[in-house]
Design goal:
The chain has 320 residues and is of the alpha/beta class. The chain is 43% helix and 15% strand. The chain has 2 domains: 196 residues, NAD(P)-binding Rossmann-like Domain (Rossmann fold, 3-Layer(aba) Sandwich); 97 residues, UDP-galactose 4-epimerase, domain 1 (Alpha-Beta Complex), CATH 3.90.25. Helix 7 crosses helix 12.
């Protein structure tokens, strides 16, 4: 049985991934690594937790030894929009934190490290439609720069040390459980909440801005399937394209209008528009489908129905 440490377990993806991994591997076998003095109840009440700052190697080593960890999932990252406000912090957390994780994993002879990447690795010079697995990587954000470097670093540890390091390039992730934390695709979550709460939304990207997106259940599915894939079948390791759906901000609004006809949207692009414009419209994920059987479950309307259902329940209970 694996003993897994999830670093960044209170973030948008990490909070839900930790719970799902506990369901699969047992509560006692999945440790939530947190920066807070105490994690949220859903993590505190369902399994062990440790304070883990990815920049503090001693803290990281202590957590690994305390729980006999053999697998690390490193979800700690400063995302695109936040990273542009503080590029040095993004470099520090995303790169120096990653080096700490990889070195601790190497020294401890771990079974596996999972380090997610992002569509932010692509820049304006990459093909926008069905962006191929292998293409030029010249991102225009510090977040993207760190993700390119992280992919290369992970591959280096595979080849140089034989460490099982894996990663996938997440598109924009949409969830009704935990709010996103400073990315250029955050509008795709906020729009649902505002549609239910106020019936209107002022979008920070243009109506025709099209980006690859993924619903959280598919995000968790893709992550866990890659973790469980046979290492011998993987011809690549840290940079799998994964797709689910692609839509424009206008198409997202139209999907919501099917279920909330009175919903109104306006568009007032800000600095995040330039970041979104540098990313693909869609990605070619044929290698993930071939090498580990990736296939998403949700399309836009299926996601919209489920998002609105869940957010309406929260609204009725006074939780939002």
């Amino acid at each position: 049985m694996r003993k897994i440490l999830v670093i960044g377990s209170t973030g948008q993806i990490g909070s839900e991934l930790t719970v799902r991994l506990r369901e699969l591997y047992g509560n006692e076998n999945v440790v939530a690594g947190v920066l807070e003095d105490r994690p949220p109840e859903k993590l505190d009440g369902t399994g062990p937790w440790e304070r883990v700052d990815v920049l503090d190697r001693r803290e990281l080593i202590a957590s690994v030894k305390n729980h006999s960890i053999d697998t690390i999932v490193n979800m700690a990252a400063i995302l695109s929009a936040t990273g542009e406000k503080n590029p040095m912090l993004a470099w520090d957390v995303n790169m120096n934190g990653l080096i700490n994780v990889l070195e601790v994993a190497r020294e401890s002879k771990m079974k596996q490290v999972l380090v997610p990447s992002s569509i932010a690795v692509f820049g304006p010079s990459a093909p926008a439609r069905d962006t191929p697995q292998e293409t030029v990587l010249k991102p225009s954000t510090m977040y993207g720069v760190t993700k390119v470097a992280g992919e290369l670093l992970g591959d280096y540890y595979v080849k140089r040390y034989g460490l099982d390091v894996r990663g996938l390039r997440y598109p924009g992730i949409i969830s009704h459980v935990t709010m996103p934390g400073g990315g250029a695709t955050d509008y795709a979550v906020a729009i649902y909440y505002e549609a239910v709460k106020t019936g209107r939304y002022n979008c920070f990207v243009n109506e025709d801005t099209r980006l690859p997106m993924m619903y959280m259940p598919d995000c968790l599915k893709s992550t866990i399937e890659l973790m469980q894939a046979d290492f011998g079948r993987l011809r690549r390791h840290c940079d799998f394209n994964v797709g689910a759906m692609s839509f424009s901000a206008g198409e997202l609004a139209a999907s919501i209008k099917k279920y909330i006809p009175e919903f109104e949207i306006s568009y007032k692009p800000d600095s995040r528009q330039e970041i979104a414009d540098s990313w693909p419209d869609s990605v070619d994920d044929s290698e993930a489908r071939e090498q580990w059987g990736w296939k998403p479950d949700y399309d836009l309307d299926a996601m919209t129905r489920d998002m609105l259902r869940a957010i309406r329940e929260k609204h009725k209970k006074g939780l939002i």
